[in-house]
Every structure is written in C-alpha cells, then in structure tokens.
Design goal:
- GO terms for molecular function: ATP binding; protein serine/threonine kinase activity.
- The protein has 8 helices and 7 strands, in the order E-E-E-H-H-E-E-E-E-H-H-H-H-H-H.
- The chain is α+β, with helices and mostly antiparallel strands.
- The strands form 3 sheets. A 3-stranded antiparallel β-sheet has the order 1-3-2, with no helix packed on it. Strands 4-7 form a two-stranded antiparallel sheet. It has a two-stranded antiparallel sheet with strand order 5-6.
- Strand 5 and strand 6 form a beta hairpin.
- It is globular and about 50 Å long.
- The two termini are about 30 Å apart.
Length: about 290
C-alpha cells in the first residue's frame, strides 16, 4: 500500500502485543535496529501501537504493535511454484546464495540469529530481478540468549542441534540456507520429515549418524524420542546398524544412516532438473525472472 507520508510502497505487519518493542525488535533480538542497514535485509520504515476500537486495546489491553516494512515481491517459494516445483538453474541459485550469505554474515556480526530461514522468508525485491531480502524476524534472537525459545526454525529447515535440544547460535541459519539451496534446484525439500523423529532420520540418512557427543549432551527427554541406532558410537565408527529400508520413520521404515548420501541427492536433483529442462518446457519464472 502507498505510504501517505512519503509516497512509498510499504507493507504493514501486526506484531502482536507481547512480542515486539517499539523499534521492531522481536522478543529475542531486543532491538530491531541491530539488523537494519544491509541491502539484503528488509528495511523497517516505521513502528507504532494501534489501540484498536471498542476500548479493548488488544489482547492484553496494551494495544497492537504494528510494523511498517518496505514492500517487496514474491518469495523463493513462489519462484519454485512457478516452475511447477521442478527447480531453478544453478546460475540463479548462485545469485540467491551470495546475497543470503552476505545477509547472514551481517546478522552474525550484529549477534542476531534469524531462527526461521526458509523459502517463504526470502523475498525478491521485484518480480523481474534476482535481488532478494530476508524478512520475518519474529523468531529471531541474540547469540547467547536462546534458552527461553522452545520452538525455532520450521521443521524442514531445522538444524540437528535444535532438534536435539542443544545450545545453538548463528550456525543454525547456515544449516537452513543449505537446505534451501538444494530445494531450489531439486524443487522439493531436502529433508521433508513428518515430525522431529522423522526429521532426524532423514538427516542421518544423508549425513550419517548423530555424533556421540551430541547425543550425550542432549536432554533425556530428547534422547528418548529419537532412533537409538542413529547415534554413531553406539555401533562403532562405521555408523548406524541396519534394519529396514531408508526413508524416514513416519511410514514404519527404520532410517539407515548414510543410506542416502547427500552427494547422491544433489546429483539426482541435477539430473531431474536437466530432464525437465530438455524433456518438457518448464514453467516460467516469476514475472519473467531470469538468471
């Protein structure tokens, strides 16, 4: 919507009454200004409290904290959908990757962890350009101040340390980015777990068993919810024991660590992309977006 004060297109986002401060900071990152000032991070234009009508003033009578952001275009998920989930070229993915890495490096220098990086939270600046920006810092936190957050990261992009209830920092955003980049070429999520147990099984199939030190440090309630055989040292240096076909735990099959190597997953994605490119015409990129 046009901003009547400056004539700029902007997006208004209600932040709730408990989760934001007047600078647009989340419950975790404290001050939204920490993440301002990078070309690949969404810019906040304004913040205000809306008291609402009828004298209610919001769910806790404190009003609704509203944030005004610059108006952006489609998400990377929309880009994937425009290809009928057949994926985009490596050239375009490289352009996305450079920008997102630059944004994550900036956030890390400010001590901010995004905590919810996924295709839906990376937006094109305009429909016909490859420039992107990170959005949605509602789950973000500061490095070293993560103990009060029981839910972070969408499941498909959730790092192992988060699944296992271990301390985490900026590295979890790098994990999410890796998952996104493979998905952008393959057209489908890299680790599509149906629950946390299945998610860890998917990860172990591609990357091998959970290191013993990670298992030993995770809370007891987390240990009991995962496949015991996914812990590497329990079966020696070679990884998990056999038993069942790979494919996650949701369907009853027991995941076998290392049975679906990441290199093979990426190679299969590349073959699938080339076949879709030459065998049939792929759906056009959003708004004519090209490499």
């Amino acid at each position: 919507n046009p901003d009547s004060r400056g004539g700029h297109a902007s997006s208004l986002e209600p932040g709730g009454s408990n989760g934001m401060d007047n600078n647009g900071g989340s419950k975790g990152d404290g001050d939204g200004r920490r993440r301002e000032g990078h070309p690949n991070v969404v810019s906040m234009l304004d913040a205000f409290v809306h008291r609402g009508g009828g004298g209610g003033g919001g769910p806790t009578n404190g009003g609704f904290h509203c944030l005004v952001f610059e108006l952006l275009s489609h998400s990377l998920y929309d880009v994937l959908r425009s290809t009928s989930f057949k994926g985009v070229s490596l050239g375009l993915i490289r352009k996305f990757a450079r920008q997102i890495l630059s944004a994550l490096s900036f956030l890390r220098s400010r001590g901010v962890v995004h905590c919810d990086l996924k295709p839906e939270n990376v937006l094109l600046v305009s429909a016909d350009r490859s420039a992107v920006k990170l959005i949605d810092f509602g789950s973000s936190c500061l490095v070293g101040d993560t103990t009060d957050f029981t839910y972070v990261q969408s499941r498909f992009y959730r790092a192992p340390e988060v699944i296992l209830g271990l301390p985490y920092a900026s590295e979890i955003d790098s994990w999410s980015l890796g998952c996104i980049l493979v998905e952008m070429h393959a057209g489908t999520p890299l680790f599509p777990g149906m629950d946390e147990r299945d998610q860890l099984g998917n990860i172990a199939e591609a990357l091998g068993p959970v290191p013993r030190w990670m298992h030993d440090r995770c809370p007891p309630e987390k240990r009991s919810m995962h496949y015991p055989h996914l812990v590497g040292a329990a079966q020696g240096e070679g990884g998990g024991a056999g038993g069942g076909a790979g494919g996650g735990g949701g369907g009853g099959d027991v995941p076998v660590p290392g049975s679906r190597p990441l290199r093979g997953i990426i190679a299969a994605a590349a073959r699938k992309f080339e076949l879709s490119r030459h065998g049939e015409r792929r759906g056009g990129d959003v708004g004519g977006l090209t490499d």
